[in-house]
Write a structure and sequence with these properties.
Layout: H1 9-26, H2 28-32, H3 42-60, H4 70-93, H5 103-145, H6 154-170, H7 174-177, H8 181-185, H9 223-232, H10 239-244, H11 249-269, H12 290-307, H13 317-335, H14 342-398
Length: about 400
């Protein structure tokens, strides 16, 4: 795919501007017969698209160390929040048009996607809670093996091994736990129930392997299916729809595409139930804001190929580093024999130091990321609520 740096955004903006101007010139006679109806300002639509392009273009220029980090993900959510606010203003400024076909149908599709996006926000919030559950066990590991002044005892080693195995099982998706190598390596840690009965009172679940009772998505919920449902209804507006809506179909499609992309990236980055990145994501390149989104999509897919090892831990940089340290410590402690040699003791100490560093980096990013995710949830909900109110109010006025 050609780099966005080789394509001039001004060319895209000019083409969009000409398209909207042509639409308006074709409708001069029609608008003259309805002078009481306010017209959509070209500058408002162009500015929305230009700002969307610029925000995501800046994100696509992140270096390898920053890309998909917690800080980068927060910037992604900030860009989304800004676009969502701009879109809300456009809806408010053009409220008299919202109930007219085909814009009413296009907006209804957008608001339906918003509901699915709220589910994904809940699921990724659950994923952040899942990381916190890992951290509780990792604190035990770090504490048990922090023996700088004396040799590790057999009891400390057993304690660390058990906690590491608890984390390894928690890192797996529900569907993976029953047949996982981790869940079979030590039967004393318990086996996750894979029965179809979702009643928690009737299921045998071992402590530490259960889903948190505060988790907000059902046992059968699938992030991959949710994304596929959003993508299947992401259809570019036809020329007659753009004309009939005086250009408003374009920002609605832009908002839908941005919503889809941000939710897809969240599922890619954060542990999420039945996560998957296979949802078809295609945006016509004639839209100015499409280039950076498609570039970012390719970058995330490339990172997925490099980083992911058929687990459900996500691509967030801090999580990837933590998982590497956990896997290294599991393998290392399996090889440790008593009496422990000086070389083994040094290897354990080095491994614990790396684990502690990754643990602290991950711990520091969890709370800010969750706060930003909550802001996204509230913004999606408020935009949807306000949009539906405007739509219903217009319908009531015209009926």
């Amino acid at each position: 795919m050609p780099s966005s740096e080789n394509e001039s955004p001004s060319v895209h903006f000019a083409s969009i501007r000409r398209a909207i101007q042509n639409i308006r010139s074709d409708q001069v006679h029609a608008t003259d017969t309805n002078n009481n109806e306010p017209q959509v300002r070209n500058s408002e639509l162009e500015l929305f698209q230009k700002q969307a392009h610029d925000r995501f273009h800046n994100l696509s220029n992140a270096n390898a160390n920053e890309f998909l980090s917690a800080a980068w993900t927060q910037k992604l959510l900030d860009a989304f929040l800004a676009c969502q606010e701009d879109f809300r203003v456009i809806l408010s400024d053009n409220r008299t048009r919202l109930s007219k076909p085909p814009l009413d149908r296009i907006l209804s599709d957008f608001f339906e996607k918003s509901i699915k996006a709220l589910d994904i926000c809940n699921a990724t919030r659950d994923g952040i809670e899942k990381i916190r559950m890992w951290q509780k066990h990792l604190e035990i590991v770090i504490c048990a093996l922090d023996c700088k002044e004396k040799m590790i005892s057999e009891g400390q080693l057993r304690r660390a091994r058990k906690s590491l195995m608890e984390v390894a099982i928690l890192m797996l998706d529900d569907k993976e736990r029953g047949s996982s190598l981790f869940s079979n390596r030590n039967k004393s840690f318990g086996q996750y129930s894979t029965g179809k009965d979702n009643n928690s009172n009737n299921r045998r679940q071992s402590s530490g392997h259960t889903r948190s009772l505060s988790w907000s998505v059902s046992h059968s919920w699938s992030a991959a299916k949710q994304l596929q449902a959003m993508a299947s209804s992401l259809v570019p507006p036809r020329a007659n729809e753009v004309a009939a809506t005086n250009g408003l179909a374009v920002p609605v499609y832009a908002a839908s595409s941005i919503l889809m992309f941000v939710m897809w990236t969240l599922v890619a980055a954060i542990p999420c139930q039945d996560r998957g990145l296979q949802a078809h994501f295609s945006i016509p390149r004639q839209f100015a804001w499409a280039t950076p989104l498609l570039l970012l999509h390719d970058q995330v897919m490339e990172e997925s190929k490099k980083r992911e090892n058929k687990n459900s831990s996500g691509l967030l940089k801090e999580v990837v580093e933590l998982v590497k340290c956990i896997q290294y410590m599991i393998d290392l402690l399996e090889q440790v024999q008593f009496p422990i040699t000086n070389l083994q003791s040094e290897e354990v100490e080095m491994g614990v130091n790396e684990l502690d560093r990754a643990f602290r980096a991950c711990k520091d990013c969890v709370d800010p990321l969750e706060r930003r995710l909550r802001e996204v949830f509230r913004k999606i909900m408020s935009c949807r609520t306000e949009g539906l109110e405007l739509l219903n109010r217009t319908n009531a006025t015209t009926s």
